[in-house]
Amino acid sequence: MTETSVRELEAVLLVGGQGTRLRPLTIGTPKPLLPTAGVPFLAHQLARARSFGVRRVVFATSYRAEMFSDAFGDGSAFGLSLVYMTEETPLGTGGAIRNAAEALTCGPDAPVLVLNGDILSGHDIGDQVARHVAREAALTLHLTEVDDPSRFGCVPTDDEGWVTAFLEKTPNPVTNRINAGCYVFTRSVIDTIPEGEVVSVERETFPGLIEAGARVLGYPDASYWLDVGTPAAFVQGSRDLVLGRLSSPALPGPTGDLLALPGAVISSEAKVAGGSTVGSRAVVEAGAKVTGSVLGDDCVVESGATVADSVVGAGARVASGAVLRDAVIGDGAVVGPGNELLEGARVWPGVALPGCAIRFSSDV
Asked: Residue 100: pLDDT above 70?
C-alpha cells in the first residue's frame, strides 16, 4: 500500500453501546469516554489510528451521542477530521457501520478501517490495511488468541489465511483464535449491508460473506489486546497504559508506577504505585495505599485507606481505614471508615456508606 493511499485512509469508530457491564461508571458517561490513563479512552484509539495514517474518522454514535462531539470537536487537536453520525434507534454493529458509511468520501475500491470503541490493541493497523489491499480481500479481520474463545467470535482460517467460518460465541470453539474487533472493509462491501435495519456483523454480515464465497482474510497477531468491557478489564487497561505495557501517543505523561494529573496532591507519606492514575485535584493523604487503581478528579483517599485494583469516581471520598479491592465507587459517593469492599463490589454515584456498613471479614 502506498504512503499516499495510507494517508487517505478513512475509519469508522463504533461507539454506540451503553456499556451496561461497566455500570455505575457509564450511567452518566459513555464507555469510550471514561477517563483511562488520564484521558478519555477514545483518545488512545484516535492517537494510535492517526499514527498509522488515518486522517478522517466517522463516529457511529447512539447512546449520549452529543458527548462525543463535546469531547473531541472537529478532531483538529488530534490532527484528524472527525464526523459524527447518530443512530436514532440502535442498529446493531452492522447497521451502525452502514449508517456511518453515508459520511465516507472514499471510492468503492478503497479500504475502510472499522474500530470498536472498547478495545485496546497494540497491533500494526497499517500492516493489516496493507495486507488487505495486497491480498485483494473483501474484508480483513484482526484475530487474536485467548484462553476462553467461547466468549467471543471464533474464527478458523485455512492454510492461506482465508477465513472459513465465523462462529459467534459458540460453546464448543474449534480454535482459540477470535475476532479482535478491528476490521478492514473494501468500501463497496459495506454498501451490501441493508440500510436502516438492525444488523449484526458478527451473526449476519461476516457469516454471510463467507457463505457467499467472498474473500475474507484473517490477520492473526500476538500483540497486546484487551476488551475493556468490565470494571476489572477497564482498570487493567488504564494500568497497562501507565506502566507502558501498551504504548499510546495520547498518554499525558511518562510511563511508570504512577500518573499524577495536574493539581493532584499526593502525600510524601502515601504509597501510590502499580500503574495508578491520580486525577486532577485528587488528594491522597498520608498513610494511604493506592495500587493499580484509577482515581477520578477531585476525589479524596483519606489517611490509612487502602485502594487496590479499583476505580474511585470523580468527587468521591474513601474514608480512613476503608479497604477497596477490585471495587468501583461512583462519582460523588462516600465510603465511610471501616468499610471493606471486595470482589467486584460497586457503589452507585452519590451513595454514602456509613462506617462499617459493609465488610467481607470480621476484622475491624
From this structure: yes
In tens, the pLDDT along 206-218 reads 999 999 999 999 9
Q: What percent of the chain has pLDDT over 90?
A: 68
Contact 137, 157 (CB under 8 A): no
**C-alpha distances out from residue 88 to 18, 60, 96, 190, 197, Å:** 14, 11, 11, 20, 12
pLDDT at 185: 96
Residue 1 banded pLDDT, cuts 50, 70, 90: very low
Q: Which three cell numbers stand for residue 298?
A: 477531585
C-alpha–C-alpha distance, residues 336 and 326, integer Å? 17
Whole-number Å distance between alpha carbons of 253 and 308: 22
Helix (H) or strand (E) holding 49: helix 41-51
**Strand order from edge to edge, sheet including 323-325:** 271-273, 289-291, 306-308, 323-325, 340-342
Rama region for 242: left / alpha / beta (φ>0; ψ in -120 to 50; rest): alpha
Q: Tell me the DSSP string of 330-364.
A: -TT-EE-TT-EEETT-EE-TT-EEPTT---SSS--
Rounded Cα distance, 172 and 256, in Å: 40
Report which of 102, 112, 100 is spatially closest to residue 137, judged by C-alpha positions: 112
User: So what's the pLDDT on residue 282?
Assistant: 98
Given a contact cutoff of 8 angstroms between Cβ atoms, the answer to whether 196 and 177 are in contact is no
Give the whole-angstrom CA distance, residue 95 versus residue 84. Answer: 15
Q: Rounded to whole angstroms, how far apart are CA atoms 331 and 60?
A: 27
pLDDT digits (tens, 9 = 90+) for 8-26: 799 999 987 776 788 888 8
**Is pLDDT of 203 > 60?**
yes
Flag whether the pTM goes above 0.70.
yes
Neighbours of 76 (CB within 10 A): 10
> For 266, phi and psi rounded to 5 degrees?
-120, 120
What is the rounded average pLDDT for all residues in the chain?
Answer: 90
Give Cβ neighbours of residue 4 (< 8 Å, ≥ 6 apart). Answer: none
90 to each of 26, 34, 101, 125, how far by Cα in Å? Answer: 17, 21, 15, 27
**CA 224: distance to chain centroid?**
13
**Measured between alpha carbons, how far is 263 from 246 in angstroms, rounded to an integer?**
26
